[in-house]
Amino acid sequence: MKLKSLLTAMALAAASLSAFAAGEAVEVQNAWARATVKGQMATGAFMTLTAKEGTKLVGAASPVAGVAQVHEMKMDGGVMKMAEVKGGLELPAGKAVELKPGGFHVMLMDLKEPLVKDSTVPVTLMFKDAKGVESKVELKMPVAMAAPGGMGKPAAMDHSMHGMPAAKPAAKP
Ligand SMILES: [Cu+2]
How confident is the model at residue 32 (pLDDT cuts 50, 70, 90)? Predict the structure, then answer.
């Protein structure tokens, strides 16, 4: 049984990196969490989510964070503000929804320890489909200063793209 549980653990680790692992209703790509400095209490986690069937990202959890929420950052009267996405983030069937700096993100708050660059952080995403059925995806997100692989354009308000990240390559789709 030991071997079997080890294999299961390896399968779970692989699942977090690959597209549509067996039974996964939501594909997760390019996941990463922003590294923090000592004393920093919150950070963002980013990824691209593609649901097979319409669902919602309703929550998140991480052992390193006292609180994890789905947030949206947007301009409000010329001021950048962020707030929890009430009722969950809609993931229409087959449509890639990007969580990125300056937009949607998973906010990890009340951090118990710093997120060290080039380490990984476990994050669980919680989904609820149209029928109200809940599911989870467990991830090990690489911790980086900026999006791995230089994917996408740096968002406004995000100046961390200066100097290319020495991050590990992102999970290849
Ligand atoms: Cu936030």
Answer: very high
